[in-house]
Each structure stands twice: as C-alpha cells, then as structure tokens.
Specification:
Length: 148
C-alpha cells in the first residue's frame, strides 16, 4: 500500500473514531440530558463521518488499487493536494458548523472539499481503463505490474 493511501486510510480511521464519539455523545444526551451544547455536535458528526471517514477511505483505497501505468500511479502532486484540501475542508466545515455564527468557515470548507475532489479526479481519470488494456500493456503502453 503506497504512503498516500496509508495516510488517507489512517486519517479516515481517526475521523471514524471522532465521528462515532460525537454520535455516541449526542445519543447519550438524548437519554440523559448531559449538556445542551452536545446537540451542536450534529454538523461535526455528519461532516466527519460522511466526508472525513467515508470519502477519505474511498480515496485512499482507490489510489492504491485502481489500474496503474506500469509501476506508476500517475501524478502524485495532485493527490497530495487533494489530501490537504479534503482535510482542511472537513475541519473547516465540521468545526465551523459547531460555531453558531458566521457561515464562512463552512462555505470555505465546502469549497476546499470540492477542490479536493477535482484534484483527485485529475489523477484518477486516466487510470480508469478496460482490463484488456491493462493485460495487453495497451492504453498508455504499460502492462500490469507488481508494484506495492
Ligand atoms: C458511518 C457512520 C455514520 C454516519 C454516516 C452517520 C450520519 C448521520 C447523519 C447524516 C445524521 C443526520 C441525520 C438527519 O439530520 O436527519 C446523523 C444523525 C445522528 N447520528 Fe449518525 N452517523 C453514523 C454513525 C452514528 C453512530 C455510530 C452514532 C451513535 C453512536 C450516531 C448517532 C447519531 C445521532 C444521535 C444523530 C442525531 C439523530 C437525530 O436527529 O435525532 N451516528 N448521523
């Protein structure tokens, strides 16, 4: 598994733990009123689990597993950019949603997330190719490999 995928997946797992914790706190607060602030965790819970966990996990596994060009997984710079933008976006939108006030952090977070998706697609798009191209060394002229 390449370094970028390990980073995506480990970060996704951190969001899974944080998102579940926020959900558990909200759930507990429904049974036993602990503190009214806990209900404000809802946007953070949703952001961390839907984007921080689910999307990020998919990015990590897709970067690792989708067809390669020989040993290359295409331009990595855009994937690093995607990782940075995605996590800046999740933090801005998740934590910004906690602060009942300015909508700007959430908007900035959403824009960063869109940028992350765009950058990821730049890397992924040419890697979506029929198996016969991969097996025959076709497409971009590279065959299958045993790259890590
Ligand atoms: C991948 C897992 C999960 C995802 C994607 C997820 C997503 C969501 C979403 C989208 C909502 C908002 C629903 C709405 O506004 O109608 C929500 C609400 C909620 N979630 Fe989760 N959730 C997950 C796991 C959990 C877990 C494990 C817990 C508790 C331990 C939890 C507790 C809650 C609670 C208490 C609410 C508020 C429900 C209400 O409106 O009364 N969630 N979740």
């Amino acid at each position: 598994m390449p370094k970028l995928s390990r980073l995506f997946v480990r970060t996704a797992l951190a969001y899974l733990v944080a998102g579940f914790t926020a959900g558990a706190l909200m759930l507990a607060n429904k049974g036993v009123a602990l503190h009214p602030f806990l209900w404000r965790l809802l946007p953070l819970h949703v952001e961390f689990l839907l984007v921080g966990w689910t999307v990020q996990f998919i990015f990590g596994v897709a970067f690792w597993i989708l067809p390669r060009f020989g040993t290359s997984r295409g331009p990595e710079g855009v994937v690093w950019l995607s990782y940075g933008l995605l996590n800046a976006g999740v933090l801005l939108a998740g934590v910004g949603g906690l602060l009942a006030g300015s909508p700007w952090p959430v908007l900035a977070g959403r824009l960063a997330e869109m940028g992350a998706i765009g950058a990821f697609v730049v890397n992924m798009w040419p890697r979506i190719k029929p198996f016969r191209d991969v097996a025959a060394g076709g497409g971009r002229g590279h065959g299958p490999s045993r790259a890590p």
